[in-house]
User: Fold these one by one.
Assistant:
Number 1:
Amino acid sequence: MNVIVIMIDSLNREYLSVYGMNDIQTPNFERLAKHCVTMDNHWTSSLPTMPCRHEVMAGRHEYLWRGWGSLEPYDVTLAQLCGQKNLVSMLITDTYHYFAEGSGNYHTDFSGWEFYRGHERDNWVTDPVETLPIYRQMLEEKGDRARAFMQNTYRFRDERHFFSPRLLSTAADWLDNNHAHKNFFLMVDSFDVHEPFYVPAPFDTMYDPEFQGEWPIWNNYGPASRYSPEVVRHIRAQYMGKITMFDKYLGAVLDRLDRFNLWNNSLVLVTSDHGHHLGEHGILGKNLPPYFDILTHIPLFVSFPGMKPTPGSRSKLLTSQIDVYPTVAQALGVQIPKDYTIHGFSMMPALKGQTAKIRDIAHTGYFGSSMVATDGRYTLHKYPNEKNQPLYTYGINLEQFHKRFKDPYVKAEAGRFLPYTDCIVFRVKEEQPPALGKTSTAVQGKKPDLLFDLKQGDDIDKNIHAQSPKVAARLTKLLIADLERIEAPAEQFERLGLK
């Protein structure tokens, strides 16, 4: 089969009509769902952006060994496997982290790649520009961190100039020109619907037409109470506008799948890396534990010829983002080396009706922070001990080695510390909990573990850990077994009280 993967950054499943929101226009997601099985029990693994991409590309959990970083010499990527079988692979993205200092090298194994510049803090346009009202509050909150986005988008005039329209139009054009290849792997990686939440007409007034005044198109993360309810509602409306704009141009890709009968010979997989708080739980943004359902329970649409679930149906099969790598490899017919350790399970046997499940537990988290484990019914939140110790970072291409504005690691030791490679790697003791941002938030003091029953609905103020010790114990046992299966670092068991 061909494989087409569409990754959408920060897409909350609850904001899609397919997953139950009535007040948003997403007709092309509904159209997609008619061809797919909609997965109701798909979860994140390593958070956030680049740890997720690393898992999808290389097939191994990231957050237990390190935070943000590039591919390692001992990684075998899906694109690399395609190259060994002379299959065409293509990356089309506007996710600038692929190419940034400390994380860039993910594109090099692809047969071809296309990168659209300008999102978020991508240092691209240098032209001097005036500060328009739409940018003012963003600059007040973010300062120079946001100046690049203002310069990059200053001359955007209509929707065709914006990120997801350009990206998805290019993907549609690529299918026009490349659909005749005998098997191909196309990965379309959209940084939308990530903030800044800046959209053109008509999407900017579609969901909050009465709003008047200024608001931050790129707000800092934290309590939603720092803004008035009207501003929070408008931030949410702009996010919804971004989703609807993405949906419109997703239609162009679906048109090509129809036109070239690609549904009949392709695995199509559409998902997100994580969600985003837009006032839910009184929060704006991500990174802050607890890692609630809205952040970790993500959308997944899957279609391939011969799948047993009827197109348009739904599945409660428990799956994790770490399962994407073996699923794509199996669909492409590429051979994962026998000595290459992967941590996920292919979804294909279950979706072909050959087995009833592929896993009993899924787990997720940021490096150095709390961990969430789920069996699809309950979510167990495990917090580290008071000192968040011991904690080590492992790898060769560690981000801090590439950050010239920070002191390099001077206490790194080298050795064979990883269970899945004989490579000599660095091990660095993290004396302090990782800072808020790409890895986690610093965990201050011991926090009690949490347990939520997803059947009770929203997972806030409904902690049942004390009332359901047997459920917590069962999930803990399943979590320990899976961490032992993948030979997670011993200190993770101690840090999280999993001994």
Number 2:
Amino acid sequence: MARKKRTSVHGQWSGRLAFILAATGSAVGLGNIWKFPYITGENGGGAFVLFYLLCVVSIGVPIMMAEVMLGRRGRASPINTMARLAREEHAHPAWRYLGWMGVLAGFLILSYYSVIAGWALAYIFRAMAGEFAAIDAEGASRLFTSLVQDPVDLLAWHTIFMVMTMLVVARGVRSGLERAVSVLMPGLFLILVLLVGYNIAQGDIVHGFHFLFDPDFSKLTPNAMLIAMGHSFFTLSLGMGAIMIYGSYLPDDVSIARTSFMVAGADTLVALLAGLAIFPIVFANGLEPGAGPGLIFQTLPIAFGRMAGGVVIGGLFFIMLVFAAWSSSISLIEPAVAWLVENHGMKRGKACVVSGIATWLVGIGTVLSFNYWSELKLFGKTFFDLLDYLTANIMLPLGGALIAIFAGWVMRRRSALEEMNMGDGAAFELWHFLVRFVAPTAVILVFLSAIGVLG
């Protein structure tokens, strides 16, 4: 006898496309815009891309399918979903803490993510005001330093971004989340295409293309492989409750496998386009590609200041960054909002205010870690660095590995078959094998490497 299908009290997506846009929006964030293109160029170009795609298919997508499956079967916040599924599968009730860890990870990530997104907001106006004109390396560094060392300015942008996030989430699944990603994701993709088009005409597109895609297998070292494995997991926004809650809004007749592959494909496409939007500009201006925020906030402004139409191109670039951050941020806070609605009987608006203020307050620690608290360190790390390390290196890998273990080892085969709706054939067997053995092993290796156990 088939299990009676549940419905989420929060509503559901209108269809497959809405979920794909939402999940891709969650996956595509600030890290995609700079991190993937950079690590690709530094670790073998095309060789790295090939190995990365293999990792996406064998690690990222199987865990994503598992997380979506758990979300759709539970039809609730990650905390209540894991508690419910643990009861149904006759598993230990401690599995509910997997849901707690995901919600907490998303909450902590958003607290500092909002501050970094605030930098992008500030730089839209700086670009449009022509502040990058004829700027040199020293001037770009001074411009960035003046922002991060001003706690009042940082707090203002952090506040604006958090308000933007909560205004979307407060409107609900269809009117808020779905409507937002239906604008943000096509907008982001359009800006990316425009920037790539500009590079074909004005940038050093050939150098940028070679940097990203020339295969150099000598650079595909064991460490590069670990980097590819780690990014294939992190890039899909796994282990932080976002994909689980989005899965809880997925209609029953939508294929989990097909949509997961589409999300992974869209995420990878955006990351590669971002590389073709960034590096030709950098190379055309004789600049060196750097890693991290330095490339975005200190190197690119120099390039925008030198190029024809740099005011417009720079403004579009930082608008794209904000779109990427915004689509991610709404997914990070949604699990906490859903839990407050379910467990405390709050109206959605009130739940957004409560969770938004709590996140904003924690974010003040990140704001201060760049100025007044910059010398205040715990375990040798500032407040911001500590949160980043705790979430990225510990909470997310553990969450992803435990999701795979629950779906592959704890959940009954019959339950997984019923929810996946793939049929009891080779496709299901392959997914079941990957989620039981390959994916958790790979994520645990990445986790051990991140905490320094593996050299």
Number 3:
Amino acid sequence: MLIDWFTVGAQALNFLILVWLMKRYLYQPVLQAIDAREQRIAAQIADAAAREATATQEKEEFKRKNTEFDKQRADMLSKATDEVKTERQRLIEEARKAADALSSKRDELLCSDAKNLHESIVRRTQAEVFAIARKTLTDLAGVSLEERMIAVFASRLQALDAAARGRLAEALKQSAEPALIRSAFELPPAQRAVLQQAINVIFSADIHLRFETAPAIVSGIELSAGGQKATWSIADYLASLEQGVDELLAKPVAPVKAPDAIPA
């Protein structure tokens, strides 16, 4: 079979032209399209990576701010708690001080009331004792309380032991001033004369006397001279009575037991 070289040559030329045309108008645009797509994909990947980095950074920033906020909130809560505790302690201290002041004032009022009651009882007791003594002496002996007290005082002077009487007698005799007689009541001239005579007899001397009224001496008489004195009053009896009253007031009152129910 004979080869047609012209035909072969024409076909070879046609093939080369076809290859050139495909490379020129088909392959090259496809490569360019692929490159462009790869670039777009790379750009998208880079953009996604940038966005991811930004998101990570924003996440870290949010986490940091959240941590700071938690710390600030904890600090503020701790500060508020401390302030509440301080204010609570201050209010408690003020309430305690107010309660202490109120308790102290109440105690003062109770003490004042107790003192006033005590003084009232003492005064009432003295008045009652004096009234009873006066009435008793008047009814039984026909003498006044003052007269009987002068007699009792004279007997007390007479009953002094030798040493005490000697010191008082020496003071009465050596004193340049008249001896002082102090009494809770005003002594009438007749009773002064009785007392003067009793003292002169007891101390065997003419004793000059000066009389004064001293309400502080509870229904009593006092003789003093040169730093020596002899006193008698019913204050000792009242002191014993007062002590008994104080013990009675201080004694707790036992609760009254309710009577047992009567069976039906």
